[in-house]
């Protein structure tokens, strides 16, 4: 699959500019001035069903057991290697101990799941108790090991709901980004509706065979599907390492909300005035007599004439009048 295709094989047509709605705070100042972006932990999203997969047992039990085994082994190995690096233990004995312990932990997990499946109260309907237990185990391990962060972006700057929900009730800003060629591979369009199912066979291919197509399919099922009620967001997601990183996108414009204060507008415009590649500034205004919004180019010079101001100056002007 080329980098210009979605997981379903359809061409990926990326909008020329994508938007990030923000309330104005310290992190927003950092994003603007330092040209960084924040990849959020999906577990913090406001929709509890977002990025919460349900593994469908569509392959044989032996393959599912091997998948669980390998998922657990890799997780434990990574955790122990991180600990070893922290205390600077890197010798062959340490590595051998890690390998032995990770295999033992994986086997204990399999033994425990097999025992749980013998519970007579478990439903024996297809796919059967052991397959069901293994599917739940794959779900848990996927969530533990999906350490990717998500930068959520929108296709519109004029969505009233987005301004209300993410733009501090129209008091915030909307940052417009273009997407350079090298960043397009990690950018994906969110699909709305359907279900949260992830096929166990796809996870098995991803884990056991390191199949790239399977990884793309699992990523799409886990990270790129939302309930149809969120369709108004028209969301695109950029995947990366969690936390604040240098922006792989090109900041192109800033749109200020209808209720954004002129002092915030001035502060942002002044902070970005010396930027190597200038950005365009706009403010949202109402379309009179309708429920629509549109944007108008911001007169930065007019703002600069009013700010920064000194409050005592007006009193000093009165003091300078004859007779005072």
Tell me which oligomeric state these chains represent. single chain
What's the number of structural domains?
Answer: 2
What's the main sheet like?
5 strands, mixed
* Helix content percent band: 25-40%
Question: Mean pLDDT, nearest integer?
Answer: 90
> Number of helix segments?
10
Provide the structure class: alpha/beta
Strand element count: 14
Structure description:
By secondary structure, this protein is an alpha/beta fold. It has two domains: about 1-50 and about 145-195 and about 230-324, no CATH class; about 55-145, no CATH class. Helices cover about 40% and strands about 20% of the residues. The chain has helices spanning about 25-35, 60-85, 90-115, 130-145, 160-165, 200-210, 210-225, 260-270, 300-305, 315-320, and strands at about 20, 35-40, 55, 150-155, 175-180, 185-190, 190, 195-200, 225, 235-240, 245, 250-255, 280-285, 295. The strands form five sheets. The protein has a five-stranded mixed beta sheet with strand order 1-5-12-13-14, covered by helices on one side. The chain has a three-stranded antiparallel beta sheet with strand order 4-10-6, with no helix packed on it. Strand 13 (about 280-285) and strand 14 (about 295) form a beta hairpin. The protein is elongated and about 100 Å long. The chain starts with 17 loop residues before the first strand and ends in a 5-residue tail after the last helix.
């Amino acid at each position: 699959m080329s980098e210009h295709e979605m997981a379903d094989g359809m061409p990926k047509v990326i909008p020329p500019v994508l938007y990030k709605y923000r309330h104005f705070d310290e992190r927003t100042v950092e994003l603007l001035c330092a040209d960084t972006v924040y990849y959020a932990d999906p577990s913090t999203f406001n929709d509890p069903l977002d990025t919460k997969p349900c593994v469908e047992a569509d392959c044989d039990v032996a393959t599912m057991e091997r998948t669980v085994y390998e998922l657990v082994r890799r997780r434990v190995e990574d955790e122990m290697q991180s600990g070893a690096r922290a205390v600077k233990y890197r010798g062959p004995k340490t590595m051998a101990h890690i390998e032995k312990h990770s295999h033992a932990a994986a086997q204990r997990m399999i033994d425990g799941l097999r025992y749980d499946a013998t519970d007579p109260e478990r439903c024996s309907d297809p796919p059967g108790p052991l397959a069901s237990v293994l599917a739940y185990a794959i779900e848990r391990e996927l969530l533990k090991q999906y350490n990717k962060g998500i930068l959520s972006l929108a296709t519109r700057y004029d969505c009233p709901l987005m301004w209300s929900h993410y733009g501090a009730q129209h008091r915030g800003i909307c940052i417009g980004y273009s997407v350079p060629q090298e960043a397009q591979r990690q950018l994906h369009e969110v699909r709305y509706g359907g279900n949260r199912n992830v096929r166990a066979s796809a996870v098995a291919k991803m884990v056991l065979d390191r199949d790239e197509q399977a990884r793309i399919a699992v990523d799409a099922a886990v990270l790129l599907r939302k309930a149809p009620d969120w369709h108004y967001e028209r969301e695109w997601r950029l995947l990366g390492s969690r936390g604040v990183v240098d922006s792989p996108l090109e900041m192109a414009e800033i749109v200020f909300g209808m209720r954004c204060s002129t002092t915030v507008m001035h502060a942002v415009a002044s902070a970005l005035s010396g930027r190597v590649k200038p950005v365009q500034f706009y403010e949202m205004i109402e379309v009179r007599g309708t429920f629509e919004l549109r944007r108008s180019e911001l007169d930065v010079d007019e703002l600069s004439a009013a700010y920064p101001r000194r409050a005592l100056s007006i009193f000093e002007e009165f003091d300078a009048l004859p007779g005072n």
